[in-house]
Each structure stands twice: as C-alpha cells, then as structure tokens.
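As the next step, I selected for study a record pairing a protein sequence with its backbone structure tokens, which the following lines show:
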Amino acid sequence: MAHETAGRAARAAWGALGALLLAWTVFEAAEHTGLTVPLAALGLLVPWLAARAPVRPAVRRAVSRVRTPLAVMVVCSLVPGPADNTAAPFTFGMAWLTHLALRRALARDRS
C-alpha cells in the first residue's frame, strides 16, 4: 500500500515537472523563434524516435535517461555569449526532458 502511494506521488511530481517544462518549452520557442521551434518539436520526439529506430539497447537507455537532456541544457547554459546563440539547443534538451517527465508521469517508463 505504501509503495503504491509513493508511486502515485512520484508520478504526480513527474507530471507537475512535465507540465512546467512544457510551458517553458513553448515559451522559449515563441520567444526565440527561428530554429528553436523545429528543435523543440524534434526534442519532444527524440525518445519516441529512438524507441523505434534500429539502434543498440545502450543508445535507447541513454536517450531514456533524464541526465542526458539535462546535460544538454547545462552545457548550453554554461556557454558564454548571448542567450540567442544557445536557445535552440537548450530548448531541444528541455523538450526532450519534457517528454521523459510526461512519460514517467503516465507510468510508461519505470527507469
């Protein structure tokens, strides 16, 4: 019983994070436009495409881990210069993380 409650709480937390990230992704895409918009759409599709691509299981696992898109976002944040230079890849990573968070909220991923 306690395990089920913890599972529901974790899914609710992932759902809240996913909703926040989705709103932030849309905001960033609308704010910066240009390449940010298609990269945001691609970021949302990366885990889905990787699950259907003929790639090694290690690649699928790397794509499904939260730390991979988070690393993309951190690297983009650390690059010096104007934010417009890194907005598109940052939004790509954020959209990817959005997908992973929402997938966990829907209990479609247990990693």
